[in-house]
Amino acid sequence: MINIAIPKGSLEEQTLLLFKQADLPIKKTSREYNPKVEDPRIDRVKILRPQEIPKYVEEGYFDIGISGRDWVIESDSDVIEIADMPYSKTGAGNVKIVIAVPQESDIQTSADIKPNSRVTTEYPNITKRHFENLGIPVDLHYSYGATEAKVPDLMDVVVDLTETGSTLRKNGLKIVDVMLESSTKLVANKESWENPEKRQEIEEIKTLLLSVIEARGKVLIDMNVPIAKLEDVISALPSLKRPTVSQLYGADYYAVETVVNKSDVNILIPKLKALGAEDILELDISKIVH
After folding, report:
1. Class of domain 95-182
2. 26-30, 130-134, 141-145: range with lowest mean pLDDT
3. 2-92+184-215 matches 95-182 in fold
4. How confident is the model over 236-277, as pLDDT tens digits?
5. Taking a C-beta distance cutoff of 8 angstroms, is the pair 118, 154 a contact?
6. Which among 61, 82, 210, 252 has most CB atoms closer than 10 A?
7. Which CATH architecture describes the domain 218-284?
């Protein structure tokens, strides 16, 4: 059995949803940091700050954990990144560690930042390496939150994590550089990964989680098509792969099914009907396993 660390905070809601959709619901108890999963492969789950998870996984307290690539790099953790988990606090997508300054500043890139500028960040190690590579000495201050609010009154430069940059802009800041692009990662302890029994359990959990992510935003379209209209209908289908086509018993009709993006369905279904498709069904997909 394996132990899993999942992130508290901005990623927590989306992570709990992911496990629920993978039929691995995480049930919180009165001690909310020690929830339970009723699965024979999972012994223990703990909710921790994502900053801490990579190092705890490296040290063997957990077999796998979910955290951002940014925290793997910031903590210099020696773990195995076994899967990219493309989701964030608002759904899907990557995030960036950016350098921002007041909008009225004449700074255009991080190379323009003046020596000994006051820099506030939750990523001191990544930030220190960045400015050392530029040969610019800076006065580095660790931030415990609300980083963007400290410029310009307390600090000159902010290094922060953002998805869209909207919060920075609302606080009168502009982005002048991107230090790192990050996404959510499933990371594993090296010894656990080398253990055949644990590795199989890790792979199985990974498959279930990724199958949910793959299925998001997609639906299954199923329809009957007369043989004379078959080629026209198939040519209109934007499928993941080739559609599945099978002849109906005792009829000059074929059953056609394929997976399409949910966002295309409202345009696609009337088009398929006009091309001759009948009995069209739209079905939700919970998992896609490749």
Report:
1. alpha beta
2. 26-30
3. yes
4. 998 667 899 999 998 999 999 999 999 999 999 999 999 999
5. yes
6. 210
7. 2-Layer Sandwich (3.30)
HEC-encoded secondary structure of the chain: CEEEEEECCCCHHHHHHHHHHCCCCEECCCCCCCCEECCCCEEEEEEECCCCHHHHHHCCCCCEEEEEHHHHHHCCCCCEEEEEECCECCECCCEEEEEEEECCCCCCCHHHCCCCCEEEECCHHHHHHHHHHHCCCCEEEECCCCHHHHCCCCCCEEEEEECCCHHHHHCCEEEEEEEEEECEEEEECHHHHHCHHHHHHHHHHHHHHHHHHHHCCEEEEEEEEEHHHHHHHHHCCCCCCCCEEEECCCCCEEEEEEEEEHHHHHHHHHHHHHCCCEEEEEEECCCCCC
* Topology (CATH level 3) of domain 2-92+184-215: D-Maltodextrin-Binding Protein; domain 2 (3.40.190)
Res. 76: pLDDT tops 90: yes
Quote the pTM value: 0.85
Q: Tokens 């899993």 correspond to what residue?
A: 4
pLDDT of 141 higher than 90: yes
- Residue in 185, 181, 180, 182 with CA at minimum distance from that of residue 15: 185
Tokens of 119: 């820099």
Contact partners, residue 46, CB within 8 Å, separation at least 6: 3, 4, 5, 6, 33, 34, 62
| Ordered strands of the 42-48 beta sheet | 42-48, 2-7, 64-68, 184-188, 80-85
Domain boundaries, the chain: 2-92+184-215, 95-182, 218-284
